[in-house]
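Quick log. Single chain, no ligands specified.
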Amino acid sequence: MTKSKLSAHVLLILCLLLLAPALLRSQDREQAGKSIGKVSVLGKLILVELNPGALGSENLFNLDHSTLRFTPEQDGYRVERLPLVWDADFGPKISSPDVALHNFSFPFSGKDWSNISVGLTGSIRFTTGAATQTNRGGGFRGGIYQSYRGEEGGVSLGRFTPLAEGASDLVNGAPAICVFFKPRMTGDRYVKELGDRVVVTWDLTEPYGNIQDFTWSPTVNRFQLVLFKSGVIQMSYQQVVAKDAIVGVYPTVSGSETPLATFPGSSQPSTPEYLDIDNVQLSVVANLFMKVTFQLHGPALKEGDPQLSGIGYQVSFSAAHQKPGNSASTASAEWTIRGFAFPRGPNPAISHYFAFGPGLSRGRSVQVDGNTISIEGMLPPELRGVRHITVSAKSFARDSDVPVSTVAEHTISLKGLNDPEVHLASLTAKSGPFPVVYEAFHYYNLPDPRDLSCTVIQALGDRFDFLAYYSDFRVDNQEAGTPSDGPRGSVGAPVTGLAPNGRGNARDLASYCSKGRFQWGFIQPIYSGAIQMQQYPPPNAPVMQSPDDITHYDQQLKEINLDGRIPPYMYAMSQIGHEMDHRWAAFSWAKVDGKMISLGDPHWDPGLEVRVPFPYMRPTEASAMGGGVWQDNHDGTFTQLDDNYYVPATGYSYLDLYLMGLISPAEVPDFFLLQNLHYVRQDDNGHAIFKADRLPLTIQDVIAADGPREPDVDHSQRHFNTGMVIMVQHGSKPSQRLIEETNGIRLQWMQYFSIVTGRRATMTANP
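-> predicted structure:
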């Protein structure tokens, strides 16, 4: 690991706080799950055939070998599709995103610009000339810390933001143009400036070879932007393999606020004034945004108030009359304001409001003013095309799902609300003018994880500790893997002692349709075409230099097996082994000399010594949850024998196994946390050496902070069952490939779990 790589890892732990709104989509607690498909059993697998329209529809890129021309007119652009216009002379390659224009200033968004930031992932952003800061997408690659190389310059989105939603998130951000904005792509950028135009060309590949990728080898994605002195914008697509991206023109827009409707609220007699809704006011801003204002009976709580944590306000929208082909599940949306306190450890923390829901404007945060609290955003695409919507609202007390104040459902007409999303391929010279215009090309919508668990549990019963989903279709995620979530149920007594203040305890079981057993699961299916679904890398897969890629270990891993092959489904074991361990880890703290020390969240700190007692494949492994294996050189330096990335698949540390209830406190050897890490050099074996401050730790320090793990090792659950679910769209049959791959992962998962738990626990996969 290089110095810069470790620094990015450490900094990105802090970025988790910034990612919280995106992650909360899967953790909102008000809405219970529902079944979204028909369930049957196929051997040892669970087959889910989705209901019609359960995940919406795909909208895949259809502009290859063509050109889009945007011609300025009045306060917008006319847009037309043309045959391909291509300049084969790219000009010089650039290594920095910052480009200064010398021959003319380009008119855009009401200003003339002489500087642009050319993003590595297919966008440009107009700047004032100051050095462009790297725009990181806030990524934890594969769930472990890693910044996305491909989001340098231009615009960026949060790691888990679907493109279908991200396209509207960019409205009224920085003035920008998305030529083919697809996060995580890498490659070369070229800029050529002429007297009357600037030509920007990208020659990029989708990410490849890593656990979160869809291809073992590079792909070709070659496209071009021309900025004419006249203000005309031209986008051309010479060869594009990728099928999902955001394409559009994003000048900043402003406009007046037009009242739309006001609805009265009602409340319980004991409702606090700051949750008592007098009315909800709806208005349209700049003909694009819906603004929702909660008028309260008393002053809204300000950020920093300790009472803020856990309270909530929510507004719900749904189509009064469904559009043809839309299901009720897709023609609805909820916007939620929640109060949170970060960090969620035992120490006092400043509370903040977070707003989340499809279409909420990035950069337009929760506004508090006296007795009002407001948010604004763009309605999701399914609702922008309807004439009438129904609206209702409610508020929640601290950590409660029961509304304390409500606004009854009312129907309104959507007057004056325009939709900037179009089908670009269908436009002609007469189309427009559009003040903002874009199209999101994307795969199927992300499912709600509660709907997934309810679909299975309602059909087959509450007999699963874990649920893993695999499909023969892709969803709107830039990564091939999936995050995880769950209510942390159990067989027997609820588990406690995993984190301070009860974090990690059972929660929201009913919303996952579990009566007590379901613990954790994937929140979306993994596509059968993803490389982590494959048993082995293909013979022609490039051998990657990065230690984050499985082929880097090709020779080492082949030597383990007598047949000379890499162990099967290594990427799949990395994913499922890591995600399911989130049920117990990594939220622990330690109390040392009266001071509370975080050991990670949501992964072990890179400097935490977390050696694996029962390695999966290699003699020396760090925990699947991060951390590292560190050798103390007794001179103030430490050698990193295994890093905090979970490729190749690794086992569980002593600390993990204690939290799982599989070993006693007495079996956990003393360990340590390295603080203030500074890279020094590499040793002769290629291991990184760091200077650091060593903080000795014991398991008793963890117990002092989090409480004892209950049930203890003598009474903890030892037998677990995973539901291995294959998903198909309505009317489809599962492919043989999907069945075979999921069966292979199922068998390997049971073997993996037995090995890495030292055979102190068993895993079945029985529907």
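Confidence is low (pLDDT under 50) at residues 1-30, 132-151, 323-329.
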